[in-house]
Design brief:
6% helix; Methylamine Dehydrogenase, Chain H; 28 strands; single chain; disordered N terminus; mainly beta
């Protein structure tokens, strides 16, 4: 079964997302993997396979600029206090972009396959990258490589998230691992008895627990799961209602609402109760809340960018 995880990671690297996507027989070059709102509400950024990073106004939703990246964008993360966008990309396209000053810092020395996930720590002094080879690298905001964490596994890493007020992070691969900023392994546990690929993780704002969304494996009858976990490996809540993999998840600023991207947009409370559903013709990929909690931005398999309200009602389609 572990070989199946390796195969699934290779599939992701070539943008073959799931059996459902194959069935749609669409152009994979349209996928927009990531949608992220800046912490001051000024902007949101959307990126994907076409290498274009679109910067929109967080107030009017107007397209302000398009930044051409060197390779396909996998994930993005805004600095907690400055409008600097950290980009995880395939090949050697990972970089830090100062959106307001139009300056770029290239993150050099990464493996040739590129990185799958990226995140700023709580004070914006550190950046963590997770890559397809199973390595984790830590950088400062100047783009200097500080630390490479030795592989604990033979599988690629696909998601990473810093604790909201500690220099500790969760990374997902063949299991759930927690490290501190010195590279010390703090915790490790399995996420479910079936060997499936985990795709996204987000700490709750309290730091008391985090949520994981996974891929499932519909060929074997394994549903995609949304799981709420304590840091010590205590499982708090599970939901299996999605009909597709969970690609991205995000808490609102207050921490009382979680939004998930899969076959639909779903909004949950912090105990895992489903509150609202926004239906989509195509699988959703990128997702994030506006900092004021009024809106949600999504991106999807067909290249659509949409704005929803806090009750999962469609407000506007941008592309």
């Amino acid at each position: 079964m572990t070989s199946r995880i390796s195969l699934m990671i290779m599939v992701m690297m070539t943008y073959c997302a799931s059996s459902k996507l194959f069935a749609q027989e669409k152009d994979l070059s349209k996928i927009l993997w990531s949608a992220n709102w800046s912490t001051d509400n000024s902007y949101f950024a959307v990126g994907g396979v076409d290498r274009n990073i679109r910067i929109f106004s967080g107030h009017t939703f107007e397209l302000l600029k398009i930044i051409q990246n060197k390779s396909a964008v996998q994930r993005m993360s805004w600095h907690p206090y400055r409008n600097i966008l950290a980009v995880a990309a395939t090949e050697d396209g990972s970089r830090l972009i100062d959106v307001e000053n139009d300056t770029v810092i290239h993150l050099k020395g990464l493996n040739t396959n590129g990185t799958r996930a990226i995140d700023w720590n709580f004070n914006g002094e550190l950046i963590a990258l997770a890559d397809y080879e199973g390595f984790i690298t830590l950088w400062n905001q100047k783009g200097d490589l500080l630390l490479t964490i030795t592989k604990e596994n033979t599988k690629g890493n696909v998601a990473i998230d810093w604790h909201p007020f500690k220099n500790e992070f969760v990374v997902l691969s063949d299991s759930v691992r927690m490290y501190d900023s010195d590279g010390k392994l703090l915790h490790k546990f399995g996420q479910r008895k079936e060997h499936v690929l985990m795709l996204c993780v987000q700490w709750h704002k309290s730091g008391d627990f985090f949520v994981i969304g996974d891929y499932g494996d519909y060929e074997y009858g394994y549903k995609a799961l949304l799981q709420f976990w304590k840091a010590d490996g205590t499982l708090l809540k599970v939901s299996d209602i999605s009909k597709a993999e969970y690609r991205n998840i995000a808490w609102n600023k207050k921490g009382n609402r979680l939004v998930t991207a899969s076959d639909a947009l779903r909004i949950w409370n912090k105990k895992g109760k489903l509150l609202a559903t926004g239906f989509s013709k195509h699988n959703l990929w990128g997702i994030d809340w506006s900092p004021n909690g009024k809106y949600i931005v999504t991106s999807d398999f067909e290249g659509h960018i949409r704005i929803w309200d806090k009750k999962a009602r469609l407000v506007r389609q941008l592309e």
